[in-house]
Each structure stands twice: as structure tokens, then as C-alpha cells.
């Protein structure tokens, strides 16, 4: 099912659009900053290791400038190209920065990114995006413009490789909470909701929580249909002049409030009759943590039974 933030346009094999958000400029820049720090640390490690190895093999000052420049080029390629290609291929489309921010590179069809796609987007990125070896200022402006104007926030490397960056960790929704419409609070307090069953209440809840995903005509038709069903099992009738969704919201909010009050009363009675039940969650787990109240009733039995026996036997 499609959520409010689903804009990646990924469709499952059953032709259902998935609730996945495409990564935009802000989150991708943050992931890039983490990757730059990681690449810098990787470059320092490579330079240090290469210096120690070459010094031990050929001695200090034995290499000429051409060899050093060649080694530098190899190191730059490994850091700028090898790092993202290796991580995106072997770590399901996630570099260190993407893993920290909660992003993932996938194919345009939602599949796992492969070596070819990772290499293509990395080469294009190094050439015209970051660090941008070809006209860096101009290509940076073009790259940002493409990301801002693309419906799914793709950059030039994504367009060339046929990939997409998505949010791997979507925030968990809190669910729909019914809210009382203030002009209907007095009317809702007098409602008789005994005939409003759970199935109809659930249908109202689902409709109100999905109004943003429905077209105007569909929303209007469903709201009128559900209100006709709710009005048939509730009384008194509502004050005129408000739309059907307001009546449904008021009915659902009042039902929710009454359920909360019943639960609070039940808990207060339970706590009064069995205090250990309310204190049990705060105690440490273990056999001696919860002391049932039943032994108090058993202890009173010998006094009653003992009045009819000479030796206290309960046989």
C-alpha cells in the first residue's frame, strides 16, 4: 500500500506500488559528507601503508617522480572509484555514508544494484559531479539542478546507470488518532454507540486515515456511504451544517474516549483488588518477584475447618 511519503515509484510483482521514499538532496549530501570523511581516512591509510611498504622494499628516495605520480593516480582511483563500487556491490547498495543516513542504491526496477551499475554511476559521479574532473563548477550546478528537478531525486550518475537512491529506514508511523471536532463535542457526548460494532468503526478509521491518498470523488462517495451506515446505528442525529467526515471523526473520537475511560476504570478496580498486579512490572524478574494473593485465602481455611475436627486434619 502506498504511504504518504511514498514517491520512489517502485512497483512489486503484484503491481502494487511500494511504500518507499526516494532520497532527496539533503539526505544525499549528508551521506556524501560521511563518505568523504571515510575516503579521506582510507587515503591516509593507503598512503601510510604504501610508504612503509616501498621504503622496506626499495629504500627511501629510490623511486622517481613518474612512478610516484603513477602510484598517486592508482590511489586516487581506488579511493574515489573503488570505494563506492566495492561497497555498493558487496553491501547491497550502501556505502558507509548511506548506511549511516539510512539510504540504499537500487536499480530503477527496485532490484539489487550490480557491479555494472555501481561502476557506471561512480565514473559519472567522479567525472561531472564529485569531485568533478570536467568543468567542476558548471557540472556541479547542472548536477544539483538535475537532482532538484527529477521527480525521484536522481543525479546524473543514477540516470546513466539506471539506478535510484531510496530511504532504507522509513520512520514508523504513529497510526491514526481520532480527533474530536470542537463544535460536535457536546453532541458526541450524548451519543448512543451501543449498536456501532467494531467492523464499522474500523472502516471509518481506515477511511479517515487514508483521505490524503484518495481522489476527491472517491473520498466524497465513501464518506457519504459510511456516514449513512453510522447514522443508522447511532442517535441522536447530529446538528446540521457540517460535512459528513466531521460527523464520522466526532463519532470515532467519542468512541475512542469512552474506551479509554473504561480501560482506566478497569485498571483502577484491578489495582484496588490486587495491588501486586500493578506492582509486578516494576519488580525484578524471578520466582520471588511476584507474590500471588491466593495464599491469604488458603491460610484462612484451617480456622474454619478446624472447628469440626479434633486434630486439624482436612481429610
Automatic annotation (TrEMBL):
<keyword id="KW-0812">Transmembrane</keyword>
<feature type="transmembrane region" description="Helical">
    <location>
        <begin position="130"/>
        <end position="149"/>
    </location>
</feature>
<keyword id="KW-1133">Transmembrane helix</keyword>
<dbReference type="InterPro" id="IPR010432">
    <property type="entry name" value="RDD"/>
</dbReference>
<keyword id="KW-0472">Membrane</keyword>
<feature type="transmembrane region" description="Helical">
    <location>
        <begin position="66"/>
        <end position="86"/>
    </location>
</feature>
<protein>
    <recommendedName>
        <fullName>RDD domain-containing protein</fullName>
    </recommendedName>
</protein>
<feature type="transmembrane region" description="Helical">
    <location>
        <begin position="29"/>
        <end position="54"/>
    </location>
</feature>
<dbReference type="Pfam" id="PF06271">
    <property type="entry name" value="RDD"/>
</dbReference>
<feature type="domain" description="RDD">
    <location>
        <begin position="23"/>
        <end position="162"/>
    </location>
</feature>
Amino acid at each position: 500500500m502506498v504511504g504518504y511519503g511514498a514517491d520512489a515509484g517502485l512497483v512489486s510483482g503484484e503491481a502494487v506500488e511500494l511504500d518507499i521514499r526516494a532520497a532527496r538532496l539533503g539526505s544525499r549530501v549528508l551521506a556524501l559528507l560521511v563518505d568523504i570523511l571515510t575516503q579521506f581516512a582510507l587515503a591516509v591509510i593507503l598512503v601510510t601503508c604504501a610508504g612503509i611498504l616501498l621504503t622496506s622494499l626499495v629504500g627511501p628516495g629510490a623511486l622517481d617522480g613518474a612512478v610516484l605520480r603513477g602510484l598517486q593516480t592508482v590511489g586516487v582511483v581506488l579511493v574515489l572509484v573503488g570505494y563506492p563500487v566495492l561497497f555498493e556491490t558487496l553491501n547491497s547498495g550502501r556505502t558507509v555514508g548511506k548506511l549511516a543516513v539510512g539510504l540504499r542504491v537500487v536499480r530503477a526496477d527496485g532490484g539489487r544494484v550490480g557491479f555494472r551499475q555501481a561502476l557506471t554511476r561512480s565514473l559519472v559521479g567522479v567525472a561531472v559531479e564529485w569531485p568533478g574532473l570536467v568543468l567542476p563548477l558548471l557540472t556541479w550546478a547542472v548536477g544539483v539542478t538535475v537532482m532538484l528537478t527529477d521527480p525521484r531525486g536522481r543525479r546524473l550518475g543514477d540516470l546513466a546507470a539506471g539506478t535510484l537512491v531510496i530511504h532504507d529506514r522509513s520512520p514508523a508511523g504513529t497510526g491514526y488518532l481520532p480527533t474530536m471536532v470542537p463544535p460536535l463535542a457536546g453532541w458526541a457526548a450524548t451519543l448512543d454507540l451501543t449498536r456501532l460494532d467494531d467492523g464499522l468503526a474500523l472502516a471509518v478509521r481506515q477511511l479517515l486515515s487514508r483521505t490524503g491518498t484518495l481522489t476527491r470523488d472517491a473520498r466524497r462517495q465513501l464518506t457519504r456511504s459510511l456516514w449513512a451506515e453510522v447514522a443508522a446505528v447511532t442517535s441522536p442525529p447530529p446538528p446540521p451544517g457540517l460535512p459528513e467526515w466531521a460527523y464520522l471523526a466526532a463519532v470515532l473520537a467519542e468512541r475512542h474516549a469512552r474506551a479509554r475511560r473504561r480501560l482506566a476504570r478497569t485498571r483502577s478496580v484491578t489495582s484496588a483488588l490486587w495491588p501486586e498486579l500493578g506492582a509486578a512490572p516494576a519488580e525484578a524478574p524471578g520466582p520471588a518477584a511476584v507474590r500471588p494473593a491466593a495464599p491469604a485465602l488458603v491460610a484462612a481455611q484451617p480456622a474454619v475447618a478446624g472447628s469440626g475436627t479434633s486434630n486439624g486434619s482436612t481429610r
